[in-house]
């Protein structure tokens, strides 16, 4: 077990993955994979998550996250209405949305994903701790257009396997890294289109935008020649933050906390993006 040197607690990712395994086992008992797969034909059509990021007039383009709570910050907003927040993001000019589906640690749900899919036209990322193929099928049946894969919790072979299934279902994979070693593992996989650099260290929850800058500086040439779109994730608050990571080479940003906490979400999105573009 990896022990966090600051809090002497087990690594939060380990705790989440342990719990996730039980969750998936329970879901498989309630609805076997074969039965879930049968629901695929009734799933909403896939929208192109990557094209939406690339074609967005905002630089960087915005993936706005529907996030109620997190292990590091607790509850972010009392009057949390996922559909209303998603619609405000859309009206404000987000290119795509990210919807947290983890219940225990982030107070999210697959119902949120389904409901948002009914009321919003933007492509949706299923923000989940994917450890089992089952969750990928579940994401698609709930209307996801993209799925997060976290390099830190998946071995290379599994990553490659999951990527293949995600693409077969017509979705995109956002593959998340935090270190250069993880990025190098991911660059060796086939069919990598979209990489997320998480600025948050999940051992001590510190956030540093230079994580994006450092990784991009070191692997810019390779990322460019592979045609990979880079998303800078977490800890972004101001238009200066957006300019900083855009200049470092990120085409998109993934923002949760700083937008969810606003009283007027639509306005906050608009002003963040406008100022980001002027800078
Ligand atoms: O709320 P923030 O600091 O803007 O971060 C959003 C997003 O990057 C963060 O929620 C996140 C990044 N990677 C994750 C993996 C799982 C759950 C959540 C995340």
TrEMBL record:
- The organism named in the record is Aetokthonos hydrillicola Thurmond2011
**What PROSITE patterns does this protein map onto?**
IGPS
User: Which Pfam family, any one, appears in the UniProt record?
Assistant: IGPS
> What name appears for this protein in its UniProt entry?
Indole-3-glycerol phosphate synthase
> What sequence ranges are listed for the domain Indole-3-glycerol phosphate synthase?
13-272
The pathway that the record names for this protein is: Amino-acid biosynthesis; L-tryptophan biosynthesis; L-tryptophan from chorismate: step 4/5
Keywords (alphabetical) are: Amino-acid biosynthesis, Aromatic amino acid biosynthesis, Decarboxylase, Lyase, Tryptophan biosynthesis
**The reaction(s) this protein catalyses:** 1-(2-carboxyphenylamino)-1-deoxy-D-ribulose 5-phosphate + H(+) = (1S,2R)-1-C-(indol-3-yl)glycerol 3-phosphate + CO2 + H2O
Q: Does the keyword Zinc-finger apply?
A: no
Q: What is its EC number?
A: 4.1.1.48
Q: Does the keyword Lyase apply?
A: yes
One term of GO molecular function: phosphoribosylanthranilate isomerase activity
Record's superkingdom? Bacteria
Biological process (GO) annotations held by this record are:
L-tryptophan biosynthetic process
Q: Which family does it belong to?
A: Belongs to the TrpC family.
């Amino acid at each position: 077990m990896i022990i966090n040197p600051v809090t002497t607690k087990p690594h939060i990712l380990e705790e989440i993955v342990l719990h996730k395994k039980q969750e998936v086992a329970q879901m498989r008992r309630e609805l076997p994979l074969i039965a879930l797969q049968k629901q695929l034909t009734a799933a909403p059509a896939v929208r192109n998550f990557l094209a939406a990021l690339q074609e967005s007039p905002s630089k960087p383009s915005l993936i706005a996250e529907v996030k109620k709570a997190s292990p590091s910050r607790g509850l972010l907003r009392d009057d949390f209405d996922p559909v209303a927040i998603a619609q405000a993001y859309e009206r404000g000019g987000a290119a795509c949305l990210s919807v947290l589906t983890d219940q225990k640690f982030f107070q999210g749900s697959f119902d949120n994903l389904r409901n948002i899919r009914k009321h919003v036209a933007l492509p949706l990322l299923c923000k989940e701790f994917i450890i089992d193929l089952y969750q990928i099928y579940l994401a698609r049946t709930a209307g996801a257009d993209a799925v997060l894969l976290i390099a830190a919790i998946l071995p290379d072979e599994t990553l490659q396997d999951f990527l293949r299934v995600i693409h077969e279902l017509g979705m995109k994979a956002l593959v998340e890294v935090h270190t250069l070693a993880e990025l190098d593992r991911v660059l060796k996989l086939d069919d990598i289109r979209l990489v997320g650099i998480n600025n948050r260290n999940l051992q001590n929850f510190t956030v540093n935008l230079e994580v994006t800058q450092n990784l991009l500086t070191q692997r810019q040439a390779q990322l460019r020649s592979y045609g990979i779109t880079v998303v800078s994730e977490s800890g972004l608050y101001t238009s200066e933050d957006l300019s900083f990571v855009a200049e470092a080479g990120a085409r998109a940003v993934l923002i949760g906390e700083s937008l969810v906490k606003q009283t007027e979400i639509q306005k906050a999105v608009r002003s963040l993006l406008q100022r980001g573009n002027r800078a």
